[in-house]
Amino acid sequence: MRKPTYYTNIDMVKGLSEEEKREIKKVTEKYPFKANDFYLNLINWDDKNDPIRRLIIPSSDELTDWGDLDASSEHLYTKAPGMEHKYRDTALILVSQVCGGQCRYCFRKRIFLDGGSEIVDDFSGAIEYIRNHKEINNVLLTGGDALVLSTGKLEKIIKALREIDHVNIIRLGSKMLAFYPFRVSEDPELIEILKKYSTKKKRIYVMAHFNNVNEISEESLKAIDMLLKAGVIICNQAPLIAGINDNADALVNLFNKLSYIGVPPYYIFQCRPTKGNFAYSVPIEKGFSIFNEAISKVSGLGKRARYMMSHKYGKIGIVGLDDEYVYMKFHRAANPTNYKKLLKMKRNKDARWLDDYGDALAQISE
């Protein structure tokens, strides 16, 4: 498999002026930069508003003081080293502190800043916890990026999970189909492993992360085709990000393309209020209007997308808007008594997170 050339120093990136580099270095002193040659070559450097440039190249706006490094309080749900159990039937294992690139709006950037203290090399504690909790029927391997792991290490984890009868679904969270699809298309061993463990009764899912249609390259299509032929199910989830996909046409193009290539859209997430993310965040009510317009213009599988907020209390869908109120509904709930609970709040055009609607929190039992 060909190896990517990684760039962690902004001076190595062609296409930026010296003045731009000086400004960007103020950001990279606080939040790391990482990209590879393949992904950078997808950028149209003549377009200052190119969405991939916006996604991967640091911006001085990241220095705006806003947010929290653990905006969804994931630490509250850590039950074993490197493992979270927030929803009754789902476990999440942080298998990697490495990604194929550093998304500027990353909601889990804390693991790149603290040396990856939440990531462990020994997953035996997580496997044992899952084995002892028979209510867990699906496990998400993420991080970081699950496909950045070596094929051998990934197989060990998948094999251990497949030996637990009640684990029926294994999901791999990865942006490598966008960042570096050769990770899939040029690793026949990986394809064979996925084919082996994605069975007729127990599928492996890849949760892809295409944010903009420009990320879906010919190389991406080749890798997607190989995964589909190996029996892997692919879905796509992405945050709504200012300057990348925060208009109806961008979402329509993305949803349509994804449905054509066999990667139906799954979730569009409200950008988490993570430190450095203010400039990438879109106000909730504006975001819902954009999303709702896009959904009205697509058909079939494109309409499967849901607009979600991954809050500390659960996955909360933004489902409606009228002249006076915004409506949300629990899709998943950390406290099962909140499941399907409907939240009705006075509109606030500046709200970017549930906590900005103070009356909403009063409706929730922790």
Oligomeric state, counting identical vs distinct chains:
single chain
Alpha-carbon Rg, integer: 20 Å
Name the CATH superfamily classification of one domain: Aldolase class I
What is the average of the pLDDT values? 95
What does this structure look like?
This protein is α/β, with parallel strands linked by helices. The chain has a domain at 6-57 and 64-265: Aldolase class I (TIM Barrel). Helix content is 29%, strand content 20%. It has 13 helices and 14 strands. It has helices spanning 18-28, 37-40, 51-56, 110-113, 124-132, 151-162, 176-179, 182-185, 188-197, 218-229, 248-260, 284-296, 358-361; strands spanning 6-7, 35-36, 78-80, 83-87, 90-94, 138-142, 169-173, 204-208, 233-240, 265-270, 306-311, 314-321, 325-333, 342-346. It has a twelve-stranded mixed beta sheet. A two-stranded antiparallel ribbon has the order 1-2. α10 (218-229) links the parallel β8 and β9. α11 (248-260) crosses α12. The radius of gyration is 20 Å and the shape is globular. The relative contact order is 0.11. The model has no long low-confidence stretch (mean pLDDT 95).
